[in-house]
């Protein structure tokens, strides 16, 4: 499409805009650059989280004056993130929004506003209305990286944060590919739901044309610098030293994003949660320094020279260093620690494909591309972005230990043609989201339970997966019409089993063993609870972090992952005569049809998977048994679900024994 025709086409759609091509060639744009930049016109795309709004008694009208599906956007023709399933509105070419740039990137709003043509009417439960028609996006007075949403009555009921931004088309277009629109405190209190302040109300795409370019529009370096700093590249002037990839999780916050049929702690509805997750690349350049403060050894990389991390949007082309569209992936999970001490993974997400890095806080010279994470650079993937159908696929498509994507026959390329032929898959019953049943997070159904939420980034050749994942604590809370994950705190790098074996109740022993395998990692942790009266309860948590014995066809970039399974049997060696009082298995899905079977024959406690429920990467299963045998050092084993060698992996762990007897078993 001829870009100079875009305004004319939009004019036909009753939303004229002046050509940005002519704007940037105006005398104002050609003058000596000023500090301030300005922009107006373009489009805003809105995807409302209607279940969250309905949860506080707000009904949303049919959008008015929205643009027809397929209307031109300022990023048409670029291989960039595109919002789908949105209501698209024109932005007026009257007034402008002022902002500043630094090192080639957007660096905060300064003033002004953008105003839409069209919008919605919000009908509140008390009979009043909020005219969200012709709303304005105005910089927040308290945060230059946020916008206030000003309704037709001149009041602010929402705010916009977690902007994913890029200056494109030679700095002539300011693109916010995604951002979170959140309920502010005034609206939460007006509707009688103060606990919903800060919860998502929608997602915005904002594409606006730059009318004046100020200073700060030049990146540190033009193009990829030479020599390159990819993982494995030698460090100039440092014989024997190499750049290494080491990506860190820096912070997590969790929001409810969708719901179905919620009625509260005694209900059976479903709730979806998603995080806003901030990452940071290793800061080291010859000297070890903390990348994430107050996290002990995990907060400081052992790699003295930080490598760049590729961040290329899926299907955008083939780029160094892997000659493909390599990018990181993100998953998240929710866990419940029951009153009896057992831990269950009650919710797990699909895989989020990263597509862009905003490169905040980079070291000097390291901000040169929105598709390369340089040394010390950070980035945030927001709640709405992580809940986007156009970025979520299945864990089975990823080989986690190598971070290779099976693009061929994937959700986005089902026919293996090498392009994104399914850019906006349907919700499909929430199957790619972290979904929990109300009964799983109910304090009446699960009295005395506590909860954890984790989020992980997976980056290719990352030398330490444990600082790329982190957990926080929180409590699922019902306010009368909504679930939230309240009281979020205690951010900690590392795996969830590391936390589970800490701060143990009286009468509990624990052990946490890393299973470091040639094709991935797992953790086997156990809590042994002395129940009194000579009885002991053993809670074994097997956490498959990134182990899979993948079966593939073809090669990158069109790799086909045919099978990607983890473990299908877990067993614990016990002496003959061990009395088993009871046993339990949990994969967290509430379905008994796919539970693992149990046997205590042949000198083992054995749990075996059915054909369709192997313990695959990113998942934790709980195996519980109660016996009259006290714990001592012993043996267990994990069996891969896919044929190959070795046939089993032995793991030393606390097991039920008689006294201090150490026993021997052969392994298959």
Strand and helix layout:
Layout (H helix, E strand, L loop, with lengths): L5 H7 L7 H5 L2 H4 L6 E12 L1 H6 L2 E3 L26 E5 L5 E6 L2 E8 L1 E4 L1 E6 L4 E5 L2 E4 L7 E4 L5 E13 L4 E11 L1 H6 L9 E13 L34 E14 L9 E12 L27 E2 L18 E9 L5 E6 L2 E3 L18 E2 L4 E4 L1 H4 L5 E2 L4 E2 L4 E2 L28 E4 L12 E9 L10 E10 L4 E11 L2 H5 L7 E10 L2 E13 L2 E10 L6 E3 L6 E4 L3 E7 L6 E7 L10 E3 L4 E5 L10 E9 L2 E11 L8 E9 L11
Antiparallel strand pairs: 1-3, 1-4, 1-13, 2-7, 3-6, 4-5, 6-9, 7-8, 9-10, 10-11, 11-12, 12-13, 14-15, 15-21, 15-25, 16-20, 17-18, 17-19, 17-26, 19-22, 23-24, 26-27, 27-28, 29-30, 30-31, 31-38, 32-33, 34-37, 34-39, 35-38, 36-37, 39-40
Question: Can you walk through the features of this model?
Answer:
This protein is mainly beta and 668 residues long. The chain folds into three domains: 3-212, no CATH class; 231-494, no CATH class; 503-668, Sandwich (Immunoglobulin-like). The protein is built from seven helices and 40 strands. The strands form nine sheets. The chain has an eight-stranded antiparallel β-barrel. Strands 17, 18, 19, 22, 26, 27 and 28 form a seven-stranded antiparallel beta sheet that branches. A hairpin with a 5-residue loop joins strand 10 and strand 11 (156-168). It is globular. The N and C termini lie far apart (64 Å).
